[in-house]
Design a protein that fits this description.
Structural class of chain A: alpha/beta
Oligomer: heterodimer
Largest interface: A-B, 31 and 38 residues
Number of strands of chain A: 6
Largest sheet of chain A: 6 strands, mixed
Shape of chain B: globular
Distance between the termini of chain A: 40 Å
Strand order of the largest sheet of chain A: 2-3-1-4-5-6
Distance between the termini of chain B: 8 Å
Order of helices and strands of chain A: EHHEEHEHEHEH
Largest sheet of chain B: 6 strands, antiparallel
Structural class of chain B: mainly beta
Order of helices and strands of chain B: EEEEEEEEEEEE
Strand order of the largest sheet of chain B: 6-7-11-10-9-8
Radius of gyration of chain A: 17 Å
Helix content of chain A: 25-40%
Helix content of chain B: under 10%
Bound molecules: guanosine-5'-diphosphate, magnesium ion
């Protein structure tokens, strides 16, 4: 009945240890002591964003783990239908980097076999506290044949690009699509003041 | 998009409605985020107590506003950009702006999968 207003729908997930910055990558607010909005006390489940890429109108449904990662209770139901996963670690936290391998195993167990993955080394604005070098991040990504970016949710570095790249790699293996080699700039409706340095 | 095109919403919403649908594009009131394209929502009069967008600090009870005019969106993927809160009660989630996260601008009922955007909590801008 409802007229279809888009070409494709991709479900994306954020995975990684607690504290690496997943919520900040997707959501603006966090446990900032000054938030007074009613919503911040409830928390956000997921978002729908519309992007235009290669002439296609794509709906992204993006999920945050809502903290289940703390109890390692991320299971099949969370992964169901996921087409893309951002695997996040914190460049200032060795353990979160080591756990990437564990998360990859978890993904292999529970997620769809052909899910597109991407590894993000977040908090790259904190170079003075860095304990995981960029080349180690690149190394593990290469080993598993996954693309890699260092990001900062706080300084808004590579966040947009991470979503574009992941969406493009899903798009590029979606059947019925013409192969393209020049990725267009993603036109995500996120033009509000993401560039202001308000982190979470 | 200029502010001059913004249509003021008072109590009579007739000028926003065409054949029961939203005549104009729906935007967030606080940021430039586009929420819903024109004609994607159906005007529905239904009373629902929607919590205020900002609540008093250190106040136990949630203050609500009884609103009756909503755009009913039958499929969540008809939205351009929208956020969903966690479930608060019996399948109800609140709707928020996907970019600046203000809200609730409406609610979603998981039982019917329908979303309801409060006309008085969004901005209506004529398509150019
Ligand atoms: N410096 C810096 N801090 C960040 C960044 N991303 C998140 N944080 C902080 O890291 C903490 C955990 O972030 P959060 O998004 O809640 O992590 P989650 O548990 O993975 O969802 C918070 O205090 C954030 O403010 C970043 O890119 N840079
Ligand atoms: Mg989180």
């Amino acid at each position: 009945m409802a007229k279809k207003s888009y070409d494709l729908l991709f479900k994306l997930l954020l995975i990684g240890d607690s504290g690496v910055g997943k919520t900040c990558i997707l959501f603006r607010f966090s446990d900032d002591a000054f938030t007074t909005t009613f919503i911040s006390t409830i928390g956000i489940d997921f978002k729908i964003k519309t992007v235009e890429l290669q002439g296609k109108k794509i709906k992204l449904q993006i999920w945050d783990t809502a903290g289940q990662e703390r109890f390692h209770t991320i299971t099949t139901s969370y992964y169901r239908g996921a087409m893309g996963i951002m695997l996040v670690y914190d460049i200032t936290n060795e353990k979160s980097f080591e756990n990437i391998v564990k998360w990859l195993r978890n993904i292999n167990e529970h997620a769809n076999e052909d899910v597109e993955k991407m590894i993000l080394g977040n908090k790259c604005d904190m170079d003075d506290k860095r304990v995981v070098s960029k080349s180690r991040g690149e190394g593990i990504a290469r080993e598993h044949n996954i693309s890699f970016l260092e990001t900062s949710a706080k300084a808004n570095i590579n966040i947009e690009k991470a979503f574009t790249d992941l969406t493009l790699s899903i798009l590029n293996k979606t059947p019925g699509r013409e192969p393209t080699d020049v990725p267009e700039k993603i036109n995500i409706d996120r033009k509000s003041d993401r560039l202001s340095n308000r982190c979470c | 998009m200029t502010d001059d095109n913004t249509i003021d919403v008072k109590n009579n919403f007739n000028h926003l409605i065409t054949e029961e649908k939203n005549k104009h594009t729906v935007y967030c009131t606080k940021c430039p985020s586009k929420i819903l394209s024109s004609t994607m929502g159906k005007h529905l009069r239904i009373e629902f107590n929607l919590p205020h967008m900002s609540q008093k600090k250190n106040c136990e009870s949630v203050e609500c506003e009884l609103l009756a005019d909503y755009w009913m969106v039958p499929d969540m993927y008809m939205f351009d950009n929208i956020g969903f809160s966690k479930t608060v009660e019996s399948g109800i989630k609140y709707l928020i702006c996907a970019d600046c996260e203000i809200g609730p601008i409406g609610w979603y009922d998981d039982n019917t999968k329908q979303s309801y955007v409060a006309l008085s909590r969004v901005k209506h801008v004529e398509d150019s």
